[in-house]
Amino acid sequence: MGSKRKRLARGLLLVYFFSLLLLWFKASDIAGTRDIIAYSREGGFWNINLKPFYTIRSVALSDDSWMVWRNLVVNVAVFIPIGILYPLALNRKYHFFIYFLHFLLFDFAIEGVQFAAMVGYFDVDDILLNSVGFSCGFAILMFCMWFRGCAGKWKR
After folding, report:
1. How many CB atoms lie within 10 A of CB 43?
2. What is the pTM of this model?
3. I need a surface site. Which of 91, 122, 132, 133 has the fewest CB within 10 A?
4. pLDDT surpasses 80 at 44
């Protein structure tokens, strides 16, 4: 039973990851992001934010509610499934800290590819928001596993 769940989680994680990747590159093509970034790099702007909470603060203070929703909520929500599926795919009894370190390495790689491929910005705030999403997903998984364990005890 454990290996079936592990295979299913791995398959879902791969499908989810490649769907995000495809959507990410397609959305940047539609928006013309590469052209905009190439133009701004020619002007000396390298599309990097290393100041924590700089983007979050500027977006939160914006009058454009769509931009607030898109940036803050989407950066959190998109990574919730990874927080659920990744521990299930490994099916190991790691502590949250180990899973979180794996995720941080993955997220830094995403931001690096985004910067190098000119499909977005390298933004430390994205890493913070994505980490919140991953942590929420992990918390949901732990709650479901706890509830399943409690429900199993109630059946007796």
Report:
1. 7
2. 0.84
3. 91
4. no
